[in-house]
Amino acid sequence: MKYALVTGASGGIGQEIARQLAKDGYGLYLHYYKNERSVQSLVEQLSTDIYAIQADLSHPSGVDTLVSSLFHPIDVLVHNSGMSTYGLVTDMTDEQVERMVQLHVTSPFLLTKRLLPSMIQRRCGQIVVISSIWGLTGASCEVLYSMVKGAQNTFVKALAKEVAPSGIRVNAIAPGAIDTPMLQGFTEEELEALANEIPLGRIGKPKDVAKAVSFLISDDASYITGQILSVNGGWYC
């Protein structure tokens, strides 16, 4: 059995990615930090070999905690952990900046570094980063979030070139507005206005992202690497 590690598996997108990968036949390592109930529910629902791992990837010790709990070689690594911050650059505390960079940039880099040798030795592996539309176009009052997501996109493009000779593919998905708890702060009127801005006329679903992950790690995408796939309904093409 092949195994996939999904970070941030307790969130709306992470849960759906886990469900899709279970359907695709993967054994799962599901990482979470706070929402244990959500991951335990997945463990009970999904009929595959599955392990839940708690670790704080916004802290320097998080990667060691996660890696020490892995018992199988990882064939698919999905970097999905993330959080957003809203406010002016001058509103951000130094601690917020450090945690955001650790969570979105440093920990994914170090986790990839730890798992790559096994992939290189076996000459196979898939890495997918769940980035953001704001990492492509930038967002006022989300400068910090845009910065770290932009860094993820460049990480993907550079790493893809480095590991392609070893048979490893690296891609990213940049979701637009997706119906997850991140949109819970919006009123119905605001959500309707947002949907009207999107050419396809609707807010995306977590399944839209999960299906894209499934495609990118499949043999059908065997000639695709180093790409940032926008899943955003035509918003900010």
UniProtKB/TrEMBL annotation:
<dbReference type="InterPro" id="IPR036291">
    <property type="entry name" value="NAD(P)-bd_dom_sf"/>
</dbReference>
<dbReference type="InterPro" id="IPR002347">
    <property type="entry name" value="SDR_fam"/>
</dbReference>
<comment type="similarity">
    <text>Belongs to the short-chain dehydrogenases/reductases (SDR) family.</text>
</comment>
<dbReference type="GO" id="GO:0016491">
    <property type="term" value="F:oxidoreductase activity"/>
</dbReference>
<protein>
    <submittedName>
        <fullName>Dehydrogenase</fullName>
    </submittedName>
</protein>
<keyword id="KW-0560">Oxidoreductase</keyword>
<dbReference type="Pfam" id="PF13561">
    <property type="entry name" value="adh_short_C2"/>
</dbReference>
<dbReference type="InterPro" id="IPR050259">
    <property type="entry name" value="SDR"/>
</dbReference>
